[in-house]
């Protein structure tokens, strides 16, 4: 996988996207449980305030997870043009959490987003621990200027071996900020 794709993935997987002079608006944030035996409790919600989208939620599982694969894709929609797939990747998510990816950029993102969590998640993920995300948002200044105004759809699914545990979908828009 190229560095470019990895950047896109990580940006997306951290809810954010692109564009210094842009506003990243999230219209929909859905967390769906696929393995109902694993999750004790979970939530995901979105707040819109002053043109910024804030994401919060929590999850609690009932057994150790030490092997987690992330499959993620992101599509850009600019009707009437055809949809454009930015990436579709499969990564060892535990390696990312445990800093197995030595890439400086990924680390910066990881550290930036870890501040919205009550604890830095590491593998194995712990049972009966309430992993909580509080008002995570896009730091637009951190993002490179890549894309025009568009809508996006980002999907992330979490798997153990080939078993689907849960998946997340974000739908939103990249808007040009009029300065
Ligand atoms: C939100 O964005 C709109 C349109 O760009 C602008 O008119 C408005 O002042 C912004 N509001 C805040 C609180 O930034
Ligand atoms: C986990 O924490 C969140 C946020 O504080 C809270 O809303 C939720 O009820 C907690 N869930 C459990 C099962 O403790």
Description:
With 179 residues, the protein is of the alpha+beta class. Helices cover 15% and strands 46% of the residues. It has a single domain, classed as Ganglioside M2 Activator Protein, Chain: A (Distorted Sandwich). The chain has three helices and eight strands, in the order H-E-E-E-E-E-H-H-E-E-E. A five-stranded antiparallel sheet has the order 1-8-7-4-5. A three-stranded antiparallel sheet has the order 2-3-6, with no helix packed on it. It is globular, with a radius of gyration of 16 Å. The termini are far apart. It binds 2-acetamido-2-deoxy-beta-D-glucopyranose (NAG) (2 copies). One 2-acetamido-2-deoxy-beta-D-glucopyranose binds at residues 50-51, 178.
Descriptive key words:
179 residues, alpha+beta, Ganglioside M2 Activator Protein, Chain: A, 5-stranded antiparallel sheet, 3-stranded antiparallel sheet, 3 helices, binds 2-acetamido-2-deoxy-beta-D-glucopyranose
Structural class: alpha+beta
Q: Tell me the strand order in the biggest sheet.
A: 1-8-7-4-5
Rg result: 16 Å
What percentage of residues falls in helices of 4 or more residues?
A: 10-25%
CATH third-tier fold name: Ganglioside M2 Activator Protein, Chain: A
Number of strands: 8
Keywords: Signal
Pfam families: DUF1091 (PF06477)
Signal peptide: 1-20
InterPro entries: DUF1091
